[in-house]
Write a structure and sequence with these properties.
This protein is of the alpha+beta class. It is built from three helices and seven strands.
Length: 155
């Protein structure tokens, strides 16, 4: 018997804001740090660009994968519970997960669909810890995004 392994975390929310406003919140460093709950954020918004997030006790690095203004933004990174060796380039530290944001204008504002995928590539103990931490982390991030953008509808 084959057991399916969870590979993704998904969220879908509608914000009562125009797509340009939501895009700015997702891709501009000063806004990203607010909803991501980090002390600081830097982002080079181009494919291959670096992204850095810093909290009191943790640093996260990412590599921007896709930038399609107002519709699609993605990056690759190490999930929160998997150690990032800051002495080595991130691209050398496979496996990485892929975080994708798809935006769509809808009647009530902007639908944001986020999918983080690639967890199946991790060893079981790392995968379980990463899924648990990032699941909770995305809940907090989406609360922060709702606070920044105004109330949100779960879908």
């Amino acid at each position: 018997m084959v057991t399916a392994v969870q590979n993704t975390i998904e969220r879908e929310v509608i914000y009562p804001q125009p797509i340009e406003r939501v895009w700015s919140a997702l891709t501009e460093a000063d806004q990203l740090k607010k909803w991501f709950g980090s002390r600081s954020a830097e982002i080079d918004l181009r494919p291959g660009g670096a992204m850095h997030l810093v909290w009191e006790n943790m640093t996260a690095r990412a590599v921007v994968e896709t930038v399609d203004p107002t519709s699609h933004f993605s990056w690759r990174w190490k999930p929160g519970s998997v150690a990032d060796d800051l002495t080595r380039p991130l691209a050398e530290q496979e496996p990485l997960t892929l975080v994708e944001f798809n935006l769509e204008t809808v009647e009530r504002g902007t639908r944001v669909r986020m999918v983080e995928s690639g967890f199946a590539a991790f060893a079981e103990s790392q995968r379980i810890a990463a899924l648990n931490q990032n699941n909770g982390g995305w809940d907090e991030c989406f609360k922060g995004l709702a606070a920044l953008l105004g109330s949100a509808d779960g879908g």
